[in-house]
Specification:
The chain has five helices and no strands.
Length: about 100
């Protein structure tokens, strides 16, 4: 997990854009590494950018909540943004963190 965190942090330092995929994946790596304050900082960034209409973030916000064990919030985010038709939603069927939503 440390290597994933190092790669994510390095990638974010090299670009101004801070791609949603990298921000989201880094937040998940922080959660798995029990670095919750850093994960929460990235959650706040994702929420702010999503509120401004940037695409891709709702999927990772939902994934964040599901990883933290808050299925109700994960579903609420998905339901609110499902009409975005983001290609990220294609991963809902195979994303391991969302497996419990299928049961």
């Amino acid at each position: 997990m440390e290597e994933a965190i190092e790669l994510g942090e390095s990638n974010l330092q090299k670009t101004r854009d801070r791609p949603y995929f990298v921000v989201g994946r880094l937040a998940l790596a922080y959660i798995k590494n029990k670095q919750y304050s850093k994960a929460n900082e990235l959650l706040a960034e994702m929420q702010n950018r999503s509120a401004k209409g940037e695409k891709g973030f709702p999927y990772f916000i939902s994934l964040y909540h599901q990883t933290m064990g808050d299925t109700a919030q994960a579903l609420a985010v998905l339901e609110k943004h499902i009409s975005d038709f983001s290609t990220d939603y294609l991963w809902l069927r195979v994303q391991p963190e969302f497996k419990s939503l299928h049961d």
